[in-house]
């Protein structure tokens, strides 16, 4: 089970993240690197928009998992983006949080801690169905274990893996949530 954050802990981590961003802007301003400052600000805006869209999905546990993932020591960097107009996925929150938590834990176990490992999760709401794309770049030292895990959890409640490709340095998964109207 992932750590549940108290309000004070969440505010402390959020303040730390914002101070890091402000220091980055301040440092680049002092070096008169205005183009880099603009890039950093644009990235902050994109992150804030994705965070807003994620929270508007009404998936409290899933949003908490993604938004707080980097608050603990990890050897995988996680990014996420939400495409399309948010809609309520409240009924799928537990399923999404559980599957993604297990998936990320498995990736942590199977990834080399000696290289930079990245996962991007794209939540695509542009069609009637909800699609999730998982894109991993790094070094998997247990490729067969990853393949077995993906096969085992390719159908989980209303969550189905449609396509996947798993290699030593990359992994891509396309999954669908079967919405019940």
Write the layout of secondary structure elements.
Elements (H helix, E strand, L loop, with lengths): L6 H24 L3 H22 L4 H9 L8 E7 L9 H18 L7 E7 L5 E8 L5 H10 L2 E2 L2 E8 L3 E8 L4
Parallel strand pairs: 1-2
Antiparallel strand pairs: 2-3, 3-6, 4-5, 5-6
Helix pairs in contact: 1-2, 3-4, 4-5
In a few lines, what is going on in this structure?
The protein contains five helices and six strands, in the order H-H-H-E-H-E-E-H-E-E-E.
| End-to-end CA span | 30 Å
Low-confidence stretches: none
Percent strand equals 15-25%
What is the overall number of helices?
A: 5
Order of helices and strands: HHHEHEEHEEE
Average residue pLDDT: 93
Q: Report the C-alpha radius of gyration, rounded.
A: 17 Å
Which class do the helix and strand fractions yield?
alpha+beta
The largest beta-sheet arranges its strands as 1-2-3-6-5-4
Number of strands: 6
Proportion of residues in helical segments: 40-55%
Main sheet properties: 6 strands, mixed
Please tell me what the overall shape is.
globular
Q: What do you see in this structure?
A:
The chain is α+β, with helices and mostly antiparallel strands and 181 residues long. The chain is built from 5 helices and 6 strands, in the order αααβαββαβββ. The protein has a 6-stranded mixed sheet. Helix 4 runs antiparallel to helix 5. The radius of gyration is 17 Å and the shape is globular. It starts with 6 loop residues before the first helix and ends with a strand.
């Amino acid at each position: 089970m992932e750590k549940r954050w108290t309000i004070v802990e969440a505010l402390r981590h959020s303040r730390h993240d914002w101070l890091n961003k402000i220091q980055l802007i301040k440092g680049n301003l002092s070096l008169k690197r205005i183009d880099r400052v603009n890039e950093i600000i644009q990235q902050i805006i994109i992150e804030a928009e994705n965070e807003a869209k994620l929270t508007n999905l009404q998936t409290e546990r899933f949003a908490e998992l993604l938004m707080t993932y980097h608050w603990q020591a990890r050897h995988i960097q996680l990014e996420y983006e939400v495409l399309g107009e948010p809609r309520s996925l409240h009924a799928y929150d537990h399923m999404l949080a559980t599957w993604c938590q297990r998936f990320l834990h498995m990736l942590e176990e199977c990834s080399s801690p000696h290289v930079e490992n990245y996962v991007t999760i794209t939540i695509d709401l542009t069609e009637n169905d909800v699609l999730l794309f998982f894109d991993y770049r790094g070094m998997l030292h247990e490729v067969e274990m990853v393949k077995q895990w993906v096969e085992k959890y390719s159908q989980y409640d209303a969550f189905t893996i449609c396509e996947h490709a798993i290699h030593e340095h990359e992994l891509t998964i396309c999954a669908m949530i079967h919405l019940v109207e």
